[in-house]
Structures are given as structure tokens and as C-alpha cells.
Amino acid sequence: MRIFFIIFLFFISCNQPHIEEKKIKTETVFIKDTVTYTYESYINKYKRLAQLQKEKYGIPASIIMAQAILESTYGNSDLVKNANNHFGIKCNTNWDGVGYYKDAEKRDECYRVYNTPEESFNDHSIFLKRERYNELFKIKITEYKKWALGLKKYGYATNPDYAELLIDLIERYQLYNLDKK
Fold it and tell me: Which of 32, 85, 121, 141 is the most buried (most CB within 10 A)?
């Protein structure tokens, strides 16, 4: 009877929903299986968040959406799935939140962890409001090409083709329509 009970418990535990445990800084985050996005489903899900950031911070929604697409591979990156980080924003000396560690340009780099996508989009906007990017806010919100070139010029990304990649995404998916009132 005891062996039957042990086998029964083993069988039940094997049928529990899959939950993966990731150790992040000093906290444990439990990750459940997540959705896989197409370009269309990702844009449809997050375009309103980008527009809200445009209204609140004066950053073109087309730029926000293109950066999110590029940095998160349409929301399918491990940073989105494990850290709700849609923009690849790294921890730095003034980040006191939880970090997600992974090998990228350097070994074991720390990326910011957010509780929700909204926190990620908002932190990205605050990140762009730093003094380093002040000149961007002199550019009209509808001039996405100048914004993309400015992001590259002021050091947002190390990829030499970053501006062209953003412009291509904006034009391919007509994200410039998100900047209209």
C-alpha cells in the first residue's frame, strides 16, 4: 500500500503545470510558459502603450515601437519572457531593482527586471529623458528618421546600423501612423 501511495504522489507531481525557477539577484522569479508573438500580434498588443508614452513624454510612438521590436525580437526574447524587459535596458549603478543576468556583449551582464510591460515601456521613456538625449526632443515627433539617427548619434546602441534598422521597421510596418494625433 505504501509503495502505491508513493507512486501516486509521483504521478500527481509530474502532472503539475511547468514552472521554471530563475535565480535573479537576491530574489527568485517564477516564469510560466509564455506566448510567442508574430510581428503583427506584438505590434497590436503594445502599440497603445507606445502611444501613451508618446503623449506623456514626447517620444515618437513609431520610435518606441521600433525599438521594442528590435530589442525584443517582436517580444520573443528571453529578456521579455524572463524579465519583462522590452528594450534591453541594462542595470547600472543607479538601478536598485532586480536584475536578470545573461551573456551578451560581455559575460554575465545584468538587465533590469520589470513586473509588467508597462513598467518597461515607462522606464524606457524615462531613460530617454536623460540629459544625454536632450537634443532629440528638439526634433518634431513626426520626424522618425531624425529621431532614429539621433539615437545612434547620442549612443543609444553600439550597432552601427541601428538607425537604419529602426527606420526599416518603421517603414515596413507603417509605424509612423502611430505618431499621428
Answer: 85
